[in-house]
Amino acid sequence: MRPVRRGASPREVDYTDYTEAKPDLVARLGAYCSFCERPIATQLAVEHVQPKSVAEYAHLIGRWENFLLACVNCNSTKGSKDVQPAHVFLPDRDNTFVAFDYLPDGTVNAGQTAVDAGVEQVANASLALTGLDKAALNTPDENGRQVALDRVRQRMEAWLVAEQANVDLAADADAGVLREYVAKLAASTGFFSVWMTVFEDDADMRRRLILKFPGTDASGCFDRANGSPVTPCPNLDGLEAGGKI
Questions:
Q1: 245 lies in a domain?
Q2: Which of 59, 61, 184, 211 has the greatest number of beta carbons closer than 10 A?
Q3: Domain count, the chain
């Protein structure tokens, strides 16, 4: 999960129709699922952190601070689960980048930082919340080749693209223009955390990635000098149970 910051609401009062918040959210966070990180051109939903179907949170239906963005898969898996921010890592208030490890096979696990901090259970609960712990689907085409229809295989594809970009940069002695192109490629491909993992030893590229994905630099979860993670998250908007990692 990419750490993000929504900032203050663009409205002085709650949204009467929460779907009207979508353009404002996309402008602040980019057109990506806040949980699985893939880019969603259409059918990106305004996601309620604490579900609107739970009576206890009815007063938060139009509340800007309760909004994120979600794809169909993450949204439907999360459903009406009672989300208690103290028990899961959330991208608007925790440094969710360091909470998880992203692997070349497309899987996501509790990160070593979470394990060392004794909050591995919180990380695992966060993955289960939207199904990011699910295995890859078996979806071969007519020739037997796997089609990337699920989030795991799409992360695998993003890893391969990022890895090739890393190789191309290493072979270019004057890579200034190429580096900016790679940052744009990452923004169009999505899966911020995959790109950040592949480029973990390239401070310049990490800085470019952080700046290219809307709302990430504003979160305060990365050092602006070298792109390294900042923990715990500064939780600049003072959200409930923020800064757990």
A1: no
A2: 61
A3: 1
Block residue for tokens 């990011």: 132
Q: State how far the Cα of 170 lies from the Cα of 173, in Å rounded to an integer.
A: 8
126: enclosing H helix or E strand: helix 120-130
Residue 211 lies in a domain: yes
What is the pTM for the complete model shown? 0.93
Does residue 178 belong to any structural domain of this protein?
yes
Burial group, residue 108, by CB count within 10 angstroms (0-12, 13-18, 19+)? buried
**Chain mean position to CA 86:** 19
58, amino acid identity: A
The token duo for 149 is 């229809």
Query: Diameter of the chain by CA atoms?
Result: 59
What is the rounded distance in angstroms from the CA atom of residue 226 to the CA atom of residue 152? 29
Q: Which tokens is 223 given?
A: 């050092």
Q: What is the Cα 149 distance to its own chain's centre? A: 19
